[in-house]
Each structure stands twice: as structure tokens, then as C-alpha cells.
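Problem: given the chain below (366 residues), write out its structure.
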Amino acid sequence: MTGTDRERLAAARRDCTVILSGPRPRSMAEVLAGMAGSRYVDGPPDTYGDGGPVTELEERVAGLLGTEAAVYFPTGTMAQQVALRFGAERTGTPAVGLHPLSHPMVHERDAYAALSGLRAVRTTTAPRNPTAEEIAGLDEPIGTLMLELPLRDAGLVLPSWDELVAVVAAARAAGARVHLDGARLWESTPHLGRSLAEVAALADSTYVSFYKSLGGMSGAALAGPAELARYARAWRHRHGGNLYQQWPAAVTALQGLDAELPRLAAYVRHARTVAAALAAVPGARIHPEPPHTQAFQLWLPHPADELNRANLELAERDRVWFAGGWRDGAVPGMAMTEVTVAGPALDLDAAAVADLAGRFRTHLPS
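Solution.
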């Protein structure tokens, strides 16, 4: 996609009055105006990650996850590298149990190997998190088992609570630490049926994102015991993550915890309504069905370029956003996008979703 295409798409989405997938876009001026009216900007800023909104955010996250401490990171990729390095050094085993669809394996350019000399042991080839039996059956020891909750590239799928407890127990029995890639952990608690603190208590370390689900500007946190926090601050510095000031991102993260975190359970419930309505579209496939989180995969029997073109035409003509970001799948003629149910979609009941899908299909070749 060219820069011109991205600008056209962004402009069309900003002008939409009806949005099925994703949050309502905000301009930089709107973000700044929202920050200006916040109590979080009344005091002094942070300095190299210490004080101000950054420290307040770290304390807030530690409280929510029930951990001794949490450390702010500018990116989740950096936080994950530190967590996996910590596990390898504490256990003396550089092998990490990773799903082949996990974020470090797919989206981080093999940073765990290039930066820390770690080695991946694939935990399963199934499009889900590994089972206890699969962990117990690994043919080589691992120092850390990383579990991505939800496993995004497999369809934002989650285990059941009992399955999660069992796989953690299997890792412990094998002498491994457990790290949670909780980029979207905020929205995973309804499916798991447990609080954030109960989920995090299963693991030795937990990473959470502030721009996914919560709508923050950027940033992440690594939470766990005080020993991990001390180590994380040292390695954050070594990775170049001690920016002079990070208060703008921290402020938007705090605002997300205030405004979006309490609404996520409603988004997850409504995602099931939206998914059921879209499942009735001719040729459509939903995965998982019902959704485990506020987001799910929608597959349609058209090439991705046709679907992206139809969505843009609908947005520009009717100021209605259906779903963008379509990608061709392994099955010829089928394409997939992730539908994310956020605030704007709460205004759409099942009948409205069905009507919107029908309007979208009028822009597709017959």
C-alpha cells in the first residue's frame, strides 16, 4: 500500500459515522485535547522513566495484575526480549517454548535469537496454545514457556481456564518458568472466567500492551516480582528504552485504563452478537465461533483486493466502515480480516450488522 493509499483510507475512515470494526479514529489534535483535560498532566513529567505518569502507570498495572512491580517499556517487543532473557539466565537454559504463530516467531524478526542468543522450541503445530500433554512430551528441556493470550495469529483463540492451569503445571513440572504474552490480556478475562490478577498469578512474568484494547498511544509493561523489575530496568536501559520523557504515552495508557478497561467485557459480549450476524452472510466463515475476545476472524469468498476496494467505496460513498485490512488466505479465493468490536459497534444490533454486511456486498463483483 502506497502512502497515498494509506492517506485516502485514513481520511475515509475518519469521516465515517457508522463503524463496525475498530475504534473511532482520532486526529492528533483530538488526542492532545483529551490529554489537556486530564488530571494526569497536572504534575511534573517523568525523567528517564522515573516519576510522573510513568510511575503512576506502573503502580496501577502492578495493582491490577497483583504483582510486586511493573516496569514501563516503550514497546512490547522490548519487554518480551527482557522477560525471555531473564528466564534463560535464571534457569540456565536458553531454549524457549514458543508457538510457531506466536509474536516473537512471526513479528519480531527473531529478536530473541539475534539479541539474546535464545533458541526456540516449538510447542505445537496446532492453531491453538499448547496442551499440558504437549509440554510434558517435549523432547528437550526449556527454560521458559511463553503463552500468548490470546494467540492472535491463530484467530485470537484462548484456552479454557482448566487447560491454562494444566499447561502451566506441566511447565513447572518440567522445570520451566512461565511468561505470558498478554498484549490482549485485558480482554481475555471474560472467556477465562478469572480476574487479571488470578491469570497473572499463574506466571512468573506478564507483558501487557497499552495501545491494543486500551487505545493508548503506545507502550507496554512487564509485570512480576521485584527481582524481575530491577533486572528489567537495567536491560531496558541497555536496549535503548530509557527515553528522556514518555509521559504522553503513559497519560493515554492511564486514560485507557479509566475509560476502556471497564468496557471490554461489554465489547466481548457484543462480539458474539456481531459474529453471529456475520456468520449468516453467504460464504462467510467466523473463527473462533463464538469469539473468545472482542476480536475474531471473518473469512469471505473473495480476493482481498476486491474486499478492500469494496470497504473503501462504502466508506467514501456512505460514510460507513465495514472492515478493512483484508488479506488473502491459504485457500484460493478466500480472504480474511480481523473484526474488532469496540465502542462504535455497540450501537449496532444484529439487524444493523446484517444490513451493513448487505450494503458492503453490493460493492463486490457479482
